[in-house]
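User: Fold this one for me? It's Tyrosine--tRNA ligase.
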Amino acid sequence: MSKIADFLKAGCEVTILFADLHAYLDNMKAPWELLALRTQYYEAAIKAMLTSIGVPLEKLKFVRGTEYQLSKEYTLDVYCMSSVITEHDAKKAGAEVVKQVDHPLLSGLLYPCLQALDEEYLKVDAQFGGVDQRKIFTMSEKYLPQLGYVKRIHFMNPMVPGLTGAKMSSSEEDSKIDLLDNPADVKKKLKKAFCEPGNVAENGVLSFTKHVLFSLMKEGESFKICRSPDHGGNLEYTKFEDLELAFANQEIHPGDLKASVELAMNSLLAPIQEIFKEPKLQELAKKAYPPPAKVKGNIASTDEVTPSRLDIRVGRIVEVSRHPDADALYVEKIDLNEEEPRTVVSGLVNFVPIEEMQNRDVVVLCNLKPAKMRGVESKGMVLCASVDDPKQVEPLLPPQGSKPGDRVVVEGYENGQPDEVLNPKKKVWEKLQPDLKTNDSLLAVWQGNKLISKLNGNPVTTKSMKNAPVK
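Assistant: Here's what I get for Tyrosine--tRNA ligase.
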């Protein structure tokens, strides 16, 4: 927004595209019924942000993708684009923008093509985005001329790390500050933020200071580090480079930097939140972003596909036998700290000797719809690292210190409420499973986020299989 403010102050005509159709194509990040509400929310939020820093809005306009992307002309150009671009180039273009899985949906390959065509249909001279968009920009410059359209200029902004030190993620609550977060929420998130003494490379707090606070400072203003007289008193900086050097030399304590950023951040958020005190905007914010754990009769009412909807628990196999009608299957009785052990059927006969299955601790997906496997009803799935060529399967190892019934969650998704039963028609497991795998460190992860015990935070691991899908 601060860079868009620069464009507007310089007299540029700025069009902000609400890419509602793109949002749906990117692995259906948002259901259709929420997209219209969210574009309304973003329009109000953007106007509030720009107004709060004194930016004129006369040359700013908003366009929703579905206003023109469903037209006959645009649709024909999508087909034309698909006839000249290779699958390799489309996947490469979206590598840092579209969610990457081993078996991508066709929608994710279309996404970069639409973004390229948007330049022509919006009649812009230049497109602006983060550096994560650069591969899409490169693809646009290559392929638009093949359709008879001129290539555009591309501007890019650096990507500010999230507060956790990694890439900021809308699905990871603690990685970001929301516009409507109250001072208590801001304090809590900054307190947990990664801000290692002397580390200036992966420091979301310091990056925010550089790219937002310093870039918005007016002439004659300075950034104040507030600290007690016992620790040297307050410091003021007019150049970010001086602040960065002082932090690198550990002359500024992370706690003092966080406290100072907290004050500055709250002063930026206050006028925006004042605008959002209007009842209509408050109602809009609630509808656009309903609580993720909102539940109706023990079934999650949201359609967002997040790993918090999976009921994964630690179990102990207390009884195991060969399936009477299937040579490759075990029938297990698994203690999940329920009233009685749960029956689960697993295809592990050829990979784990029966004596190693008895009294084994396992990780179980518990809310799949029960299904009969060769006449025996299975009420769960033992999660395993598994590769097909050569065929190898290895049950995941539960977190150290865990016991039967303990919840296993994905880091960053600890607070969601799992569905009582995953609706097969919604294909929640099918959409989440391709991103479940083991990594180089033998940790089980979902999109790079560790599977951990909800109680003690210890990770789920595998004995020997690296970079293997989890099924």
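One thing worth pointing out: The CA atoms of residues 226 and 259 lie 7 Å apart.
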